[in-house]
Specification:
single chain; about 230 residues; alpha+beta; seven-stranded antiparallel sheet; globular; disordered N terminus
Length: about 230
């Protein structure tokens, strides 16, 4: 899927997006504790959900540390992939995590519509458990999150990330032509994940252009740990 270079990649992704829209394939969806509804790199050897990387161990030991995670459903969205997000509330053992699931499978849902947006808060272990079981998915999920990548950081902009959560949960869903602007763009699961973690100021967060493919983008997260996630 990757052609080479940013221009080539974007051109390829636009082609995929248009083909997807015409063929009826929906990006960022799965076929099938306080909760609130609403670029290529070598992959490291996957670890089990029970293992912790050195970076996360050091992060847990630091009172002011932060961290971020990306959760992946490799088989979601016709195998283009689906992603969700998590970040640590600095100075605590609490994490905020969520996703835009798009359970209706529509290419366009206007602001205020059902896009399956949710977020929750809990410990690191609770976050992994919830994501591995699709505990907050609005309906029956047939493609659970089975992989996650994390990075530690010394700080994190929690307040800004919270504001972005409310933004992505209320702006609707889109993959294709924006009916208001006529622009070929997206407001999907990857856009939500990137926007929340970018607002948090996660380290080594690769830029995600609109209409990018989740399974391609996940491979570009340089210096992020790589884990297999199994139900727990």
């Amino acid at each position: 899927m990757f052609i080479g270079g940013r221009t080539g990649r974007i051109a390829c992704l636009v082609t995929v997006a248009v083909t997807t829209a015409v063929g009826g394939l929906i990006g960022c969806h799965s076929s099938g504790s306080a909760t609130h509804q609403q670029r290529p790199a070598k992959v490291r050897k996957a670890r089990s959900a029970g293992e912790t990387t050195g970076g996360l161990t050091r992060m847990s030991a630091s009172a002011g540390s932060g961290g971020a995670c990306v959760f992946v459903k490799p088989d979601g969205a016709q195998k283009f992939g689906h992603v969700g997000w998590g970040f640590r509330i600095t100075g605590t053992n609490q994490w905020v995590y969520g996703a835009v699931e798009n359970p209706t499978n529509k290419l366009y849902t206007p602001p205020g519509g059902n896009i399956g947006a949710w977020h929750a808060q809990g410990s690191y272990a609770r976050m992994l458990s919830d994501m591995s079981r699709d505990a907050h998915y609005p309906g029956r999920s047939t493609h659970p999150y089975s992989r996650y990548r994390c990075v530690s950081s010394s700080t994190g902009d929690v307040n800004n990330a919270w504001r972005m959560i409310h933004t992505v949960e209320s702006r609707g869903f889109l993959v294709g032509i924006d009916p208001k602007t006529g622009e070929l763009t997206s407001r999907d699961c990857l856009d939500a994940t990137y926007d929340v973690l970018h607002a948090y100021r996660a380290r080594h967060l690769t830029y995600a252009p609109h209409l990018d493919i989740p399974n391609v983008w996940v491979e570009t997260l340089w210096d992020w740990s790589d884990h297999t996630l199994t139900p727990r």
